[in-house]
Amino acid sequence: MAKIVAGIKYPPLAAQARIQGEVHLSLGPDGIHVILGHPLFVPAATESFKGLVEISSEAAKAIYHFTLTEPVIATKPVIVKKGNAIDRLILRVRRLKTERTVTYCVEGPPKDQNRIDTSKRPLEIWVYGVAPHCLQEEATQLAASPAPVKLIQRRE
Asked: Domain range holding 94?
């Protein structure tokens, strides 16, 4: 059971939209029924529940808790050369820096691992995901950096 639960992935679209929620499933004579749940989480929960039903006949009902956690974030400085070779030659003559340091954001896996509580009925499964954080920081850095803007004139 632990392998099946560990293999559940938080839906990427739900993570980007920062959606959290629960999915309630039950097993009936004609298959799996979704009692309650967000449509973005239902496919991941039903696939996992199918695997749990194959292993254990006790899995008649389950509640999946989809939760976002804070990401493990590290910054990675990278040295980037300015311009082409001629530009760098001119910068050297003027005794200016020919390189600049750019900091990139690197996200790690969620702090918490998916888990299952088999002591309760219905089964409770917690699925952890990470909302993308680095994308926002990179967009903020791009907006703050003074970049030359070229205007294109259209001829009619």
From this structure: 78-107
Distance of alpha carbon 32 from alpha carbon 29, whole angstroms: 8
Mean pLDDT in residue range 33-58: 86
**pLDDT score recorded for residue 149:** 44
Element (H, E) at 25: strand 21-28
Identify whether 122 is preceded by a cis peptide bond (ω within 30 of 0).
yes
Whether the CA torsion 13, 15, 16, 18 is positive or negative: it is: positive
15 Rama class: left (phi>0) / alpha (psi -120 to 50) / beta: alpha
Q: 97 and 40 share a domain?
A: no
In the numeric block, the tokens 């309630």 are attached to 24
CB 52 within 8 A of CB 6: no
pTM surpassing 0.90? no
pLDDT tens across 50-82, in order? 888 776 665 688 999 999 988 777 777 788 888
The answer to whether residue 33 is domain-embedded is yes
